[in-house]
Amino acid sequence: xxxxxxxxxxxxxxxxxxxxxxxxxxxxxxxxxxxxxxxxxxxxxxxxxxxxxxxxxxxxxxxxxxxxxxxxxxxxxxxxxxxxxxxxxxxxxxxxxxxxxxxxxxxxxxxxxxxxxxxxxxxxxxxxxxxxxxxxxxxxxxxxxxxxxxxxxxxxxxxxxxxxxxxxxxxxxxxxxxxxxxxxxxxxxxxxxxxxxxxxxxxxxxxxxxxxxxxxxxxxxxxxxxxxxxxxxxxxxxxxxxxxxxxxxxxxxxxxxxxxxxxxxxxxxxxxxxxxxxxxxxxxxxxxxxxxxxxxxxxxxxxxxxxxxxxxxxxxxxxxxxxxxxxxxxxxxxxxxxxxxxxxxxxxxxxxxxxxxxxxxxxxxxxxxxxxxxxxxxxxxxxxxxxxxxxxxxxxxxxxxxxxxxxxxxxxxxxxxxxxxxxxxxxxxxxxxxxxxxxxxxxxxxxxxxxxxxxxxxxxxxxxxxxxxxxxxxxxxxxxxxxxxxxxxxxxxxxxxxxxxxxxxxxxxxxxxxxxxxxxxxxxxxxxxxxxxxxxxxxxxxxxxxxxxxxxxxxxxxxxxxxxxxxxxxxxxx
Length: 574
Prior knowledge:
- By secondary structure, the protein is of the alpha/beta class.
- Helices cover 42% and strands 16% of the residues.
- The protein contains 23 helices and 18 strands.
- The strands form four sheets. It has a six-stranded parallel sheet, sandwiched between helices. Strands 11-10-9-12-13 form a five-stranded parallel sheet, sandwiched between helices. Strands 14, 15, 16, 17 and 18 form a five-stranded mixed sheet that branches.
- Helix 12 links the parallel strand 10 and strand 11.
- Helix 1 crosses helix 2 (33-46).
- It is globular, with a radius of gyration of 25 Å.
């Protein structure tokens, strides 16, 4: 089995033009992730592949240390922090050495302050962007969306976490599995921890129920990843748009992180797009709320982005009405909310209702889940749960229309050099929107630029799509439009009149037919996935002009195509 996996990765290496990622996934220390990674390193070396160890942690395990022999080890970078000497990946040394394959342990590790990147997975992303393939290891409990689940199941707060999107982008994931009984036996034999730590480990983290829970989580995650990749390869022709998932956030609601992780896991199980919505009331304007509340809102929206949500902020007095309008526009079939605050009896008499009550009365065909956010994290429905059947049975009728196969197209086929614009100096939001609408229309004489710009402005007034993470997705649905129009803006100095913590770098404009709301959703999801990718963002950031940006986009989307061939790909010859 191991040889088959190594052969498959070897074939992938030979085909690729940019770095590929392979992850050995386990449920606890000692299951054999590092051991199998090193075994594959030897196998690849025997097949003539240039392999080097960028960082491996043996944790004193003799069998693991022995496997390092015979493989080149790139020296680590030594740093002093608070009087302690630490060792991290020497990123620059790895990039200079540029092996075909780098072996890197413990993907979720947090680097010591002062290093170039905060997290090791960011080092790995830089290495992949340089065309170096990476084989790495990860324990399932380090996935961000599982934080609450793991705390509930095992009683441990996992400090080192990484976004689920990092694992989702892996080209291969291998489950390294042993039974809990075998793992405990390894622990007793001293193959996991030194003798002085064995007793404490068995009494705490390595108790049988904990290991069984973590093992089940790992198997579920593997099943979810396999199903997701299978569905990504299904033909789009004749498919339907699934009902989307949205989670409603509040600045003062308890356990917003729990809501986000629940929605993220649910979307992963059901293979749905999902949105995180924050409605800012007049009492929550930045000039009104205190700095602590502002930090809570900002960190919540940032976590939503990290978990893979498309984040929208709206301004409005009526939260329920805003949620309902959003749900109808984006074909929402599943709404997740936290438990509402109790309504005093005298307000009840006057007709006051909670947001969940109003949603259930005023919107039909949508499944509404109210989580008890005053307690711990709820169970996540399995892939084949009754909840999924209920969602499908109650999906809005309008969401069952056949979808245009936008998702299957590469973004490079929708864009062109003429539909990409780069600003070297700071620019206003209005100038950005106007310029992108103009280039999206291109030479189309039927385009009414004034009407299109008015539609985009109106949509922005309803809720800004310029987010804290340096990305904006202005969009509008246009009556009578036959085909979607898109444009991409890149700024070197940001957008001057946006209240975001991070300078606005990427603005993706999409104009889609009013009669086909599913096309808008697919385009937004496609662009969001692209612009969350560290490789592509770095390539676009370094582009000097629209020509280079377009080449970078197509080369990233179609890694088997070298740069001289890109012109042929763009013209449809490939």
